[in-house]
Write a structure and sequence with these properties.
With 352 residues, the chain is an all-alpha fold. It folds into two domains: 73 residues; 273 residues, Na+/H+ antiporter like fold. It has a two-stranded antiparallel ribbon. Strand 1 and strand 2 form a beta hairpin. Helix 4 packs across helix 11, helix 9 packs across helix 10 and helix 10 runs parallel beside helix 14.
């Protein structure tokens, strides 16, 4: 089955060229979407390649939105961007429901790692994002999206990558949880200070918006996990699938909404986002090594710093009514970090 699906994916990629000639972009689009999705299923069947299946699936989602955006803009008069924030809240609830107070044990076991990780998270990515935004030459609202990604907390995907990279998973979960809970207060301040010259930032409103998107659903998830542990065991199997489906839907809607703006600046924005992501990994790892951390913790800090909660950044852009400008960088960063994170984790996973 693996060989059959691999061959089928290659055939789909090859026939996209004659289909483009015969039927235009729509013909090529269908073939390319199927190529990514068949390849994702193919990778899913092999343990060594399985970590790459979700990023490849997301590439298929992005391709679908770029070639066929209209069905994902509006349904029955309802604008689908209205789903972004509820989906983020579901994902954050899922994060809270899988956490327990034991997940914060790394604070006691390794306080230095936690403090350094928090400091690196809220300095490296915001400052790198600010520098790239200033150098980009992009429209102010689009450039501010790069800063918004940098000022966001790390995402739950970093915990999976830490596991695959044979890093310190307990430290990764602790950092993600604490940084996420700090985000309602730190992210707006950073945005006001760094992005205020690009767009207008209402500090208190942004704080309240992030509280609604993050703190309330995470708190609800924690409460359910704490008080209804035995009854909520089934959620452990369901919530990861729901979260992945939510991430895919968010990326689909945002890419479709910003497609016309993304096309002319795609290569430039792609390069800037890739640089932002890789510099996060590199500087996070380098700082950890300079400060004397062991390899396992250094890998953890690199992944935590380099991977951001692009979904939250997209939600904030949507609340501000700037999903087609401010939301472009988060829309590109989300799929990008899944690909680079999987590659980095696979590389480290093979090493002791």
């Amino acid at each position: 089955m693996f060989k059959f699906l691999l061959l089928l994916s290659l055939i789909l990629a090859l026939i996209s060229i004659p289909l483009a000639w015969l039927f235009g972009a729509s013909g090529a689009g269908i073939a390319l979407v199927l190529f990514w999705w068949v390849l994702a299923l193919c990778f899913r069947l092999k343990n060594s390649l399985a970590p790459y299946s979700f990023p490849i699936l997301i590439l298929g989602v992005v391709t679908l939105a770029m070639f066929f955006p209209k069905p994902f803009l509006e349904v029955g008069g309802f604008t689908l961007t209205g789903l972004i924030n509820p989906l983020i809240q579901v994902i954050m609830f899922g994060m809270g429901a899988t956490l327990s107070w034991k997940d914060f044990a790394a604070v006691v076991k390794s306080p230095k790692s936690v403090v350094v990780g928090i400091c690196l998270q809220f300095t490296i990515m915001p400052m790198v994002g600010f520098g790239l935004a200033k150098l980009s030459g992009l429209a102010p609202e689009v450039a501010a999206g790069i800063i918004l990604v940098g000022c966001s907390p790390s995402g739950t995907a970093s915990n999976v990558m830490a596991f695959l990279a044979r890093a310190n998973v307990a430290l990764s979960v602790t950092l993600t949880s604490i940084i996420t809970l700090m985000a309602p207060f730190i992210t707006p301040i950073l945005m006001k200070f760094l992005a205020g010259q690009f767009i207008e930032i209402d500090l208190l409103k942004m704080m309240w918006d992030i509280v609604k998107i993050i703190l309330l659903p995470v708190g609800a998830g924690l409460a359910i996990n704490h008080f209804l542990k035995k009854k909520s065991m089934g959620l452990d199997a369901v919530l990861p699938v729901v979260s992945m489906a939510g991430i895919a839907m968010i990326i689909l809607v945002i890419t479709a909404a910003g497609r016309d703006s993304l096309l002319p600046m795609g290569p430039i924005l792609l390069g800037l986002v890739l640089a932002h992501n890789i510099l996060g990994y590199g500087l996070g790892y380098g700082c950890a090594k300079v400060l004397g951390f062991q390899e396992q913790d250094a890998r953890t800090l690199a992944i935590e710093v380099g991977m951001q909660n692009a979904g939250l950044a997209s939600g904030l852009a949507n609340i501000l009514g700037k999903i087609t400008t401010l939301g472009l960088a988060p829309a590109v960063f989300g799929p990008m970090q899944n690909i680079t994170g999987s590659m980095l984790a696979a590389f480290w996973g093979r090493k002791k």
